């Protein structure tokens, strides 16, 4: 019976990490929670002779939600640098729930409508960002492009990916290793707000950059 509880708890926990329609932050948090919940279930079941599995899964999941990545002094310093570099530009610089540095970059400073060429105003921001990445080689980067709902998926999907690729190529040209950067294009599938006004569509046209520093592996 105890083995059944352990296996069931782990399966439920890992299902949390595979839900569709999650944002990047939610996916990262869910994966950490899944790992923590699975481990917690095992420990709880052993310690409580089966009765503690459910409690262990809950406690382990809560801890695991932020255990996949660490928030280091280097990331804190990079966050401070980016806040200074982007002050007054409309770029949001935040620490996510799963300990990643996030840059949310609106379209009015990043790309012209329908284009994937980096705007001049965006270059100085990326220069500062690249310097921070070069000084923190342990971190990895995910760049995600988004569009509004104007136009078809046949246009928006490759446009969003091309914008992410442009940011990657700019960073690699400034010394950031290519293999540290993953890119994705979400087209219009993940709007921040309804695409019902010009202002709202501008909010949905954006690039999100995430920087994570994985927790060191246990010996």
Structure characterization notes:
It is a single chain. The protein has two domains: 2-67; 70-214, OmpA-like domain (60s Ribosomal Protein L30, Chain: A). The protein has helices at 2-15, 24-47, 53-64, 73-85, 107-110, 120-134, 153-172, 198-204, and strands spanning 69-70, 92-95, 100-106, 140-146, 181-185, 206-214. With 219 residues, the protein is α+β, with helices and mostly antiparallel strands. Strands 1, 2, 3, 4, 5 and 6 form a six-stranded mixed sheet that branches. Helix 1 (2-15) packs antiparallel against helix 2 (24-47) and helix 6 (120-134) crosses helix 7 (153-172). Helices cover 50% and strands 16% of the residues. The chain is globular, with a radius of gyration of 20 Å. It has eight helices and six strands. Residues 55-66 have low confidence and may be disordered. It starts with a helix and ends in a 5-residue tail after the last strand. Strand 2 and strand 3 (100-106) form a beta hairpin.
Write the layout of secondary structure elements.
Elements: H1 2-15, H2 24-47, H3 53-64, E1 69-70, H4 73-85, E2 92-95, E3 100-106, H5 107-110, H6 120-134, E4 140-146, H7 153-172, E5 181-185, H8 198-204, E6 206-214
Parallel strand pairs: 4-5
Antiparallel strand pairs: 1-6, 2-3, 3-6, 4-6
Helix pairs in contact: 1-2, 1-3, 2-3, 4-6, 6-7
């Amino acid at each position: 019976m105890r083995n059944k509880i352990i296996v069931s708890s782990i399966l439920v926990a890992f299902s949390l990490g595979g839900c569709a329609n999650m944002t990047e932050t939610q996916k990262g948090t869910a994966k950490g929670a899944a790992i923590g919940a699975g481990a917690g279930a095992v420990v709880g079941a052993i310690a409580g002779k089966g009765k503690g599995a459910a409690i262990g899964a809950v406690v382990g999941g809560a801890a695991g939600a932020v255990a996949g990545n660490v928030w280091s002094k280097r990331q804190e310093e990079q966050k401070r640098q980016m806040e200074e570099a982007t002050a007054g530009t409309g770029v949001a610089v935040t620490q996510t729930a799963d300990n990643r540095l996030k840059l949310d970059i609106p379209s009015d400073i990043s790309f012209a409508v329908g284009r994937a060429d980096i705007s001049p105003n965006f270059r100085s921001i990326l220069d500062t960002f690249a310097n921070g990445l070069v000084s923190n080689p342990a971190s990895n980067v995910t760049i995600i492009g988004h569009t509004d709902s104007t136009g078809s998926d046949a246009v928006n999907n490759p446009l969003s990916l091309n914008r992410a690729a442009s940011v990657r190529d700019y960073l690699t040209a400034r010394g950031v290793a290519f293999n540290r950067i993953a890119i994705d294009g979400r087209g219009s599938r993940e709007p921040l707000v309804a695409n019902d006004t010009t202002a709202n569509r501008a909010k949905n046209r954006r690039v999100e950059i995430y920087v994570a520093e994985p927790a060191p592996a246990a010996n």
